[in-house]
Design goal:
Elements lengths: L18 E6 L6 H10 L4 H11 L4 E10 L2 E10 L7 E2 H9 L5 H22 L7 E2 L5 H16 L2 E6 L2 E2 L1 E7 L2 E5 L2 H6 L5 E2 L4 E2 L3 H10 L2 E2 L5 E10 L10 E9 L12 E8 L7 H10 L4 E8 L5 E10 L3 H11 L6 E5 L5 E9 L3 E10 L2 E7 L1 H11 L3 H14 L14
Parallel strand pairs: 1-6, 6-12, 7-10
Antiparallel strand pairs: 1-14, 2-3, 4-5, 8-9, 8-11, 13-14, 15-17, 15-18, 16-17, 19-20, 20-21
Helix pairs in contact: 1-5, 1-7, 2-5, 3-4, 4-5, 4-7, 10-11
Length: 423
């Protein structure tokens, strides 16, 4: 069945729930297999064709058929040429084609990340600069169609998180553009860095395009995560190997809440978002606002995102009852368009505050953490130390030292019993 060429139909991604997909690549990974699995799982064929047409118009047509691989039903996607001349292209040319195609942002960004990984791997294999890489099998029309098609299918399915299994790479030798080379081919080995792999059988089971799609898009390598399964899809490779189903599986679902501790219910939730486009001067106010709205703690972690962009991960620890309000504050106060969350279990020491006398009768509250009436830690409240130092015209360190000394003098030290008036 041919996949119809059409004007870009309305994607249902905007109306989809938060979806996660797990890719089972234990039999190998190729671009057409991944695309077949996602279409089999429900991605719109016309949406995929429209995205490919936007990048390389009038060049290829996608078709799908139902086949069997070692007795299992699967969807086989083929890329049919519509023109005779399909030139090899440089990474810069491919980058321009994708950037200028008018694709939805997530489709464009994912496709650029995948081809960027491919370019980096090919550059290292051949010892040339990234922009000098001329893609051969990888950069031809079919791989552009596979990469853009997979990214469009993920977007159409509303997928926001991707995980994958270890990848079977194969063994033996294969003939490529540069001659007879061993399997796994060099580019696949480069792309495998940091990923779990296995041989899995004879022949080339993972292609550079397939390996780049898995390792560039999947956040984590591992077994099937905890999901409420919505749909599954199976994409077929070209060969039908007896005794080994040559397929990639896609398992689509919604993440399950974190399993609670058998002896306790979840007490808190961690909210998290990656932000790379905010004026850093705004962050102190954002953290203060989150704490004011009921967060127990809020902090930033410097990170490096795709394309080398510096960014921050905003993490917020929130009591269950305040999650909705704090999440809404994150959307209002930051530029993020998505917030992740998971339940956590916090074991907190009991705490109380004991006034410590400093500076001629002035007091500073000391936060005393204790377990069963035995002091574990005692710390002067820093904000109160700063306020007293300001009113007295003294260095903060002077007041802090005095508060620490006063706490010790009053017996507020680890291992001591909590004073009866501080319980």
């Amino acid at each position: 069945m041919r996949i119809p060429a059409a004007q870009p139909p309305e994607s249902h991604a905007a109306n989809a729930q938060h979806q996660e997909v797990w890719i089972d690549a234990t039999a190998g990974a190729a671009g057409d297999m991944l695309l077949g699995a996602l279409i089999d799982a429900g991605a719109g064929p016309a949406v995929v064709q429209a995205a490919v047409d936007a990048v390389i118009p009038g060049t290829v047509r996608l078709s799908q058929t139902t086949v069997r691989r070692a007795g299992l039903r699967a969807t086989k996607v083929a890329v049919e040429p519509l023109a005779e001349d399909h030139p090899h292209r440089t990474w810069q040319t491919i980058r321009d084609l994708i950037t200028q195609a008018g694709l939805p942002g997530p489709v464009r960004d994912r496709a650029l990340v995948v081809f960027g990984r491919l370019a980096g791997a090919e550059a290292r294999v051949h010892g040339v600069g990234v922009d000098e890489v001329h893609f051969h099998e990888v950069g031809a029309w079919d791989s552009i169609a596979d990469v853009v098609g997979v990214c469009a299918a993920l977007h159409d399915l509303g997928v926001t998180r991707i995980t994958a299994s270890p990848v079977a790479l194969g063994s033996g030798r294969v003939r490529a553009a540069h001659g007879d080379i061993p399997v796994p081919v060099p580019a696949v080995l480069e792309l495998s860095a940091g990923w779990q792999v296995l041989s899995g059988g004879e022949g080339e089971l993972a292609t550079p395009t397939g390996m780049a799609l898995v390792t560039a898009l999947a956040e984590q390598c591992g077994t099937l995560p905890a999901l409420t399964v919505q749909r599954t899809g199976m994409g077929a490779g070209t060969k039908d190997t007896p005794g080994r189903a040559n397929v990639v599986r896609a398992v689509l679902g919604t993440p399950m809440p974190a399993a609670p501790d058998s002896s306790r219910d979840a007490t808190d939730v961690v909210l998290e978002a990656n932000v790379d486009d905010m004026d850093p001067r705004l962050w102190p106010g954002v953290l203060t606002a989150l704490l004011t709205d009921g967060a127990s703690d809020a902090w930033l972690v410097p990170i490096l995102m795709k394309k080398g962009r510096p960014a921050h991960t905003l993490r917020v620890l929130v009591p269950v009852a305040r999650v909705a309000a704090v999440r809404e504050r994150m959307f209002r106060e930051t530029s993020t368009i998505g917030v992740r969350d998971w339940a956590v279990h916090k074991t907190a020491l009991e705490r109380t505050w004991v006034p410590a006398a400093v500076l001629d009768g002035q007091t500073v509250p000391v936060k005393v953490a204790h377990r069963g009436g035995t002091i574990v830690r005692a710390t002067p409240e820093f904000e109160d130390v700063v306020a007293l130092a300001t009113t007295q015209g003294l260095p903060v360190v002077t007041v802090l030292d005095a508060a620490n000394a006063a706490a010790v003098a009053q017996g507020l030290v680890p291992g001591a019993e909590l004073p009866s008036d501080g319980a």
